Amino acid sequence: MATTQVIVAGAGPVGLTLAAELRLAGAEVVVLERLAEPTGQSRALGMHTRTLEVLDQRGVFDRLGGQLGTWGHFGAISLDFGVLDSHVAGQMLIPQVRTERVLGEWAEELGVPVRRGHEVVGMTQDADGVEVEVAGPEGSYRLRAAYLVGCDGGRSTVRKLAGFDFPGTDATTEYLMADVEGIDLPARFSQPLERGGISSFPLGDGVVRVLLAEWGAPPRRRTEPPAFAEVVERAARISGEDISAGTPRWVTAFGDACRQASEYRRGRVLLAGDAAHIHLPAGGQGLNLGVQDAVNLGWKLGAVVTGRAPEELLDTYHSERHPVGAEVLFNTRAQSLLLNTGPEADPLRSMLARIFQMAEVNRYLTGLISAVDIRYEVGAGEHSLLGRRMPHRVLSTEDGETTTTRLLRTARGVLLDLADDAGLRAAAAGWSDRVDVVRASSAELAGVDAVLLRPDGYVAWVAPDTGEALDAALRRWFGAPRAH
């Protein structure tokens, strides 16, 4: 039987990001993807600030080539994302097909094998690992690994095989979405009409994306995508517009079901992305939430399977990411009340539009949707940086100018010595195989003597004003020191 350290089910943005992170951590990984070829569909069209930051931490941002803008929304009410403290503040307009291509090329460069047309159909786990039954183009086979991660979407086979609970609510509203050539519709975003809501906006190359929700129409249980004729009929009922002369590139349907796995880890099986949580894609948070799941899990799982950290480190994946997912489900449910109601809610929308213009409210909502305001529980201490992502800061070192972002390209921990403290550097010497110690200075980090960064860019320890010794923080996040 073939073996590897980690099996990743699913080669979408989440699975590819996770696989790349695992390789950067030195782990062996195999990706199994049910589809023989990428769909070519771009359901997601944007990336938020924190996702752009984590991809820049790995040197991938410059490959994306999307358009960065500062406009965003909460329930179709405008927000200004330009207020965020980030070198990539805003949202990047980038089709999912390009995102997957870039992430796929990155994973391939790191040596990730992606087996397309290979579907997980069975699974058993024991105390030492997971055995997966795979249906491939040339027949069935079995593959064993220390861990299996389901990144296989909202209908996750891995989640079902492993017996994860997936509580929540079923869809009450169905959306039809199509990318259509050869039609002329006005640009509008979530316009509420008497019979339903409609969005239509150009994607370039003569393609218009049409998104339709019909009030009172119950969601249908579908096994195939809807026919374009159904989209044409719904558009005529909702807005009176005839789009029958158009040619669809693809058509899909989705609903506002809201569910979250009660746990993100069951023994040797973990979930990430839509396999762990589904929700209305309001505010474009779905892909972003999943990629950040992958970045949180990747360095931890990589450290565990390569023997550099204890298995208990994996418990922090659930404790950190489950509350984040729950918060996204909460805010998308709130947005659905604005998106799935007709003109009778216009006075509420107008009132909220005024409130959202207030600087404090705008900053709160943009920080929420962009995920830059996440704060993890990383240990004792009250410093404002502790548990938060390290913003992009310019540093001066003996080797020249660099940034906090660039220091994370190797996906290792980073201990920033900002006070030229030889004792600090000596205390971290036992972790030199996992943590880079960098002597630096920065006007943007005035009053900070030292900072310990996890590989995902979150601050694990700060001096002064910390309630935990450096040794304890290093052990907690990077395992025991190397034996001399």
* The CATH top-level class label of the largest domain: Alpha Beta
Low-pLDDT stretches are none
Number of domains: 3
Biggest β-sheet strands, sense, barrel: 8 strands, mixed
Estimate the strand proportion.
Answer: 25-35%
CATH topology of the largest domain: FAD/NAD(P)-binding domain
Oligomer: single chain
CATH superfamily of the largest domain, please? FAD/NAD(P)-binding domain
Tally the helices: what do you get?
A: 12
| Average pLDDT over all residues | 95
InterPro entries: FAD-bd, FAD/NAD-bd_sf, RIFMO-like
Keywords: FAD, Flavoprotein
Domain FAD-binding: 4-329
GO molecular function: FAD binding; oxidoreductase activity, acting on paired donors, with incorporation or reduction of molecular oxygen, NAD(P)H as one donor, and incorporation of one atom of oxygen
